[in-house]
Amino acid sequence: MQKSYSRLLGVVGKPNTGKSTFFSAATLAPAEIANYPFTTIKPNRGVGYVRTPCVHEEFQVRDNPSNSLCLDGVRLIPVELIDCAGLVPDAWQGRGLGNQFLDEIRRADALIHVVDASGGTDCEGRLCKPGEHDPLEDVRFLEREITMWMASILKKDWPKLARTAEAESKDLYTMLEERLSGLAIKRSHILDATKKAGLNADKPTAWSDEDFLRFVDAVRQTSKPMLIVANKIDLPTAEANLERLKKLDYTVIACCAEAELALRRAAEKQLIDYKPGDCNFKIAQPEKLSPNQTKALEIIREKILLKNGSTGVQDAINTAYFKLLSMITVYPVEDVERLADHNGRVLPDAYLVPYGTTAHQFAYLIHTELGESFIYAVDARGRKRIGEDAVLKDRDVISIVSAKKRA
Fold it and tell me: What's the pTM?
């Protein structure tokens, strides 16, 4: 199966919140999991999936997925996740190897912040009695660490950048984009951040230190959008904290990563029928389960799935892509009558692309030559021709007609 990565998700948080368990549950990639800080020293990379209803049922065809999976009408599109090592206070200054850890999220387009909703780990990631620590402090802590890390990268060049922008009438946004390109920060992020901070980009030398930090914090918010995963929701002290977390200016998802990991591993061994994100499961081979395993699965069903609707892991990935990053799903085909590619495979590929992508831009995403020789596209639903500036919609099935194809 080909990989179809579109954006990179960073899984972040302090040590011992269940971050690596979340990553393992999402990807089934091996990650060392233990109840002490800095278990994850080097970042783990793995493949998770965005879950979306497949269009093959609407078109009443049997599909042949190539760059993704289709299970019982559910299309699973591969995406890349990176599990960053746990951060501690003042990580941006290098404490706990923090700078190395923060560097791993440079390329992340969005962040999943795994928080111990039970309040059972202190600010350093050490175990404490559930309810003793306030998880809201963890959210504020991570905001500060990432903002100060970004500020430290930009600060040394800032006076020169500001003076040059004013003295030589250069575009501050372009200069900052070049300086911050290694952090996957784009011009649009910087423009939005300047407006959000209420600052005048024509007079950057007049910005105070407070203005500068407010600007950098706004850059963090626009370039690294974040959602909160309230993990360990199965513990008694978590529910009250979940409600408090929901009052913050973030999307918050209740989660039990341990439950998802158990279900995914059981499904991998074909002991149960379960797809990531399902609200229930079916035991496929009861004779191969011990009484303790059966009991554990029933506890997950009763206390997690039936109560919350899911374990939260798949919800977090879907929310990151569809809400934070505003992605849509598009299916390219060559033959609009058969919905097939040149090999006869029906609906072989599903792409995640940003909302607002045009037909011409999508052609470039598939292949540079296809974009360069683009003539028009055809919408498979209405068999209508659409031009290069037509904005694609979620679940569109389109065929690109190019000069090369016609030749």
Answer: 0.90
